[in-house]
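User: quick one - fold this with nicotinamide-adenine-dinucleotide bound?
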Amino acid sequence: MWKIGVVGAGYWSDKHLQAWRRIPGVQIQGLCDPDKSRLYSKAEAYDIPEDKLYGTLEEMLAAADIDVVDIITPPDTHPELVGRAARAGKHIMCQKPFAHSMEEAREMVEAAKAAEVRLMVTENWRWLQPMQAIKELLNSGAAGLLHTIRYIHTDYYSPRFAPENELPQPFFREMPRLLFYEMGVHWHDTWRFLFGDPKRIYAETRRVSPYITGEDAGLITLGYEDYMGFMDMSWATRQNLPGLLTMPVLPEHKEQLIIEGDQATLKLYSSGTLSLIDNSGMETIVTENNGLDFEESHFRLQSHFIHCLNTGEEFQTSGEDNLKTLELVFGTYRSAEEHEVIHFGQR
Ligand SMILES: NC(=O)c1ccc[n+]([C@@H]2O[C@H](COP(=O)([O-])OP(=O)(O)OC[C@H]3O[C@@H](n4cnc5c(N)ncnc54)[C@H](O)[C@@H]3O)[C@@H](O)[C@H]2O)c1
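Assistant: Sure. Structure tokens for the protein plus nicotinamide-adenine-dinucleotide:
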């Protein structure tokens, strides 16, 4: 039985708590958050008894019998929490974005190594159904040799960041780096999962909304030996709106991918339909309903974490692996600031 201590009872903790309750061989042994009202409301929702609730990780480590610390707090808290959990000899799952800088990220990876504990970054995007289905098609060779990849993300968050609107994650407004830090870690990780590590990138970013500090739109060109890619990511676009926007403000993420190879073009429509267009021009639907299934993605991701603890297999998104994703994220900002191509060495 793996005994889990959860740190952070905020917006996204529901996804973690729901998944832990479904995975065999797992028990939630503690939940901590200094915000008492959040702590008690999650405890009630997930039947966690009062004697398993704590104000801090320190208290939880001292009192609860746990093997794993699951960190669901903002990035500025990660170095302290990861360091503390590692020194206590606990395996760690830590939410994205893992760190504010490469130095911080490397220090956390080293801390886990020194303490001989396992460390995985909670990167759920690659575990979404459409990404898993695309990976399977690419592995089967359905598209053949790739030459051009386009990844498009749209949402219409920008005007809805206005101060009078209630946001699920109000801290977005103040983040100096927003879209490619908060979401870019997902996109770069998913891109690496599907297409491998690029050799160079060039980025342009923009702030469209007047209500935020960071950027809410951007374009990235990605260069490989054999193929080229393009990310067109925006929270400032009216594309594919589901109808009139409602209150409260919630994300309306839409993802599209167009993957061109010498055998076929693979298309993910924002509706969740996946199709193949062959060399005769015939389009065949492969599967439908590949929606952004966040709850299931967490079940797959957390099941993978437990599977790797049981077998000793490498985590797909270990702390060490995530360093490569973060290099792409910070490279995106450097490229956009300096208007320079960023080259990556042997990766
Ligand atoms: N993987 C995803 O798709 C996804 C989605 C949303 C959020 N996230 C990430 O999850 C993290 C948390 O996001 P959120 O939206 O739940 O934020 P949130 O602000 O709603 O919740 C964070 C909680 O952590 C608590 N906290 C802060 N410092 C703490 C500490 N030292 N010890 C214990 N608790 C502490 C806060 O009191 C708060 O309740 C962020 O890094 C965010 O980027 C990931």
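One thing worth noting: Residues 2-122 form a domain with the Rossmann fold fold (CATH 3.40.50.720).
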